[in-house]
Amino acid sequence: MALSTAVTPDPDSFLKKRSASSNYSVEHIPLDDLPNWQLDDRLWHASGRFFAVEGLSIRTDFGPTPHWCQPIILQPEIGILGIIVKRINGIHHFLMQAKMEPGNSELVQYAATVQATPSNYQRVHGGRPTPYLNYFLEHAGRRIVFDQLLSEHASWYLHKRNRNMIVEIPEDEDIEPTDDFAWLTLGQLRQQLEQGNRVNMNARTVLSGISYAAEDDLDSYGDIEDGFRRQVAESHGAGRSNPDVLAAMTWLIDQKAKYSLDVRRISLHDMDEWVCDKDSIRHREGRYFRIIGQSVTATSREVGTWWQPMLEPNRGNIVALICQRRSGVLQFLVQAMVQPGLTDRLELAATVQLTPGSYRGPEDFPSLAEYLDAPASWIRLKAVQSEDGGRFSRADTTHVVVHVPDGHTVNAPDNYRWMPLGLLNRLIHSGYYVNVEARSLIACLL
């Protein structure tokens, strides 16, 4: 394939062009006005497919709150999040989709080649087929670079997981991208990530599976400048041995055994401190988030018009990773965090995972939150990224990476541990060990 037809030289212009090529409308409406949705003890679709919203009662000895109730999204289907990759002129290129999602602050963002649940690609909605789906359902003759079931936002989803895949096709296999698709290099994707709200969450979780473990892989992704990014690339090569992984898994099992978590599904009307009526589902004090209805029109989607509930969080969410060069290798401080929607109670999270609307004041903020006010010279990344725009409305999270100087002492609680990116990458490839917020930040370090 000729480079001139395969590569998009200006990703910003391509995204703007695709956004302008279609018409979009997102309107907030009462839950009672959602066609084919019913609100009783839970909020559910008449088909029994797609997803539902139920109540949850949680008890745990992790964190400052031993018991609370909340709504949560149930979506038992395992969706496919897949990216096609191939070498063009010796450099890896990723087939990305310019995709509109109603919850995104910037409606159209780069998404994975395929981002679809079974309800979508089996066309329960009666819409158009999912392009390139066969590359992820039929694997013969293709190299599977990454294939793993991974968790989703475990404070808002119950036991939600998606199949994250990267499939490499031969250099001589020709794919001519259709209108909404473009080949981007890793460097181009990194620039989009640094701008913020350009690469959606589902693409970021797949991209977190990329590794610079070997020097030939490093070269194939293009030039990496000296300094911090070189340290990041070197960190991808560290901690990858089986003994390193086994030690990390043993530590995580110790953490799981240390904390309790009891999660029970209850009626939406039995949730303390929550109001559930025809308009929305919301906290009495306006904290945390609310469940709203939306009417959506998008001429670029498989279905042009639809209606659905959305989770709208309070503004100001932040995730941050502290990193430091330790024993000659850049390492990242992660925490073992219990979340109510996780399949196995606990996964690794970023150093700070802060939802200001969940706390009554700064005195309740999590450990190490003071590093959010680190000197500007320590900040290596600060960008706002959208969360799952298919289920969450304007759920923007500020992503921060803080590089503390050598010799600076970080006093972390016992459920925190320093890990190089190579070890974190091995754990991502192993399943339910690294939560989606941490994976999103790792992807921003490409």
UniProtKB/TrEMBL annotation:
Report which superkingdom the organism of origin falls in: Bacteria
The record's InterPro entries line, in alphabetical order, gives: EvaA-like, EvaA-like_sf
Span of domain dTDP-4-dehydro-6-deoxy-alpha-D-glucopyranose 2,3-dehydratase: 12-209, 249-445
Which parts pass through the membrane?
none
Record's protein name: NDP-hexose 2,3-dehydratase family protein
